[in-house]
């Protein structure tokens, strides 16, 4: 059973010209239904009031009927750090998230997908551009942990972040081959039952990246090469394809 809870909040001093703001710690769990057994390994991420506001506005626009009974706290100019206001906002955020947990249409909406992944995705892309692949890997691993609780194992949002983790190894020139190997194995396993044509366009670069990882680690890559050859015989383009990172960037998630 999917559960969302705001477990804490903190005041963050803004950088440069940014004003200080309140960061809310969102905990995401898959609790055992009909029992008091809590998820032993929850995902924790921070979000700001503006993140929740964008989520609410997006859902309200696309699903006005489903949001009829949801009251969302208005933005104010003064008093944002008052404990009573923060408590009231936490309650409102949890009510909105509870609705999302129980309604798949809301979870699969563009607003929800953006809310659950955009903060970490933006940070990971920045770190990759700066060549800080190990830090990007850590951010993407946290993102996967969250998304894998909210969405199904083979949903495109989960597969995309999983493949982006593997792509980190390719972009790092093999430096992350060891830490990423288990993620590569998982990605290959998840793809066994995938048939969507656009997702398969990522599968070929994934195979190429895994072959490179296996080669770096001295592992037998014959099965991966055999899989590529099988796709070639089925008429798929398997040579001169984009890198895995480029392929994931081009994937339409929604």
TrEMBL record:
It is found in: Early endosome membrane. It comes from the Eukaryota. One of its GO terms (molecular function) is phosphatidylinositol phosphate binding. It holds the Pfam family PX. PANTHER family: LD12265P (PTHR20939:SF11), SORTING NEXIN 20, 21 (PTHR20939). GO terms for biological process: protein transport. The keyword Protein transport applies. The keyword Thylakoid does not apply. This is Sorting nexin-20. Residues 2-123 form the PX domain. It is a peripheral membrane protein. Keywords: Endosome, Lipid-binding, Membrane, Protein transport, Transport. GO terms for cellular component: early endosome membrane.
């Amino acid at each position: 059973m999917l559960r969302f809870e705001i477990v804490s909040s903190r005041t963050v001093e803004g950088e440069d010209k940014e004003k200080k703001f309140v960061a809310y710690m969102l905990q995401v769990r898959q609790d055992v239904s009909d029992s008091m057994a809590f998820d032993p390994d929850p995902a924790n991420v921070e979000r700001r009031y503006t993140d929740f506001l964008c989520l609410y506005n997006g859902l309200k626009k696309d699903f006005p009927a489903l949001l009829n009974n949801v009251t969302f706290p208005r933005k104010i100019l003064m008093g944002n750090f008052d404990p009573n206001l923060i408590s009231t906002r936490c309650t409102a955020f949890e009510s909105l998230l509870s609705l999302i947990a129980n309604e798949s249409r809301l979870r699969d909406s563009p607003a929800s997908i953006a809310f659950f992944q955009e903060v970490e995705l933006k940070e990971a892309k920045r770190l990759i551009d700066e060549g800080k692949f190990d830090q990007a890997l850590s951010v993407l691993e946290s993102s996967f942990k969250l998304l894998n609780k909210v969405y199904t194992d083979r949903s495109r949002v989960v597969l995309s972040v999983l493949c982006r983790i593997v792509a980190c190894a390719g972009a790092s020139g093999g430096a992350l081959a060891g830490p990423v190997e288990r993620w590569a194995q998982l990605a290959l396993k998840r793809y066994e039952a995938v048939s969507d044509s656009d997702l398969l366009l990522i599968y070929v670069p994934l195979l190429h990246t895994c072959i490179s990882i296996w080669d770096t680690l001295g592992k037998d890559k014959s099965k991966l090469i055999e899989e590529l050859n099988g796709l070639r015989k089925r008429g798929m383009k398997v040579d001169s394809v984009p890198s895995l990172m480029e392929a994931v960037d081009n994937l339409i998630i929604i």
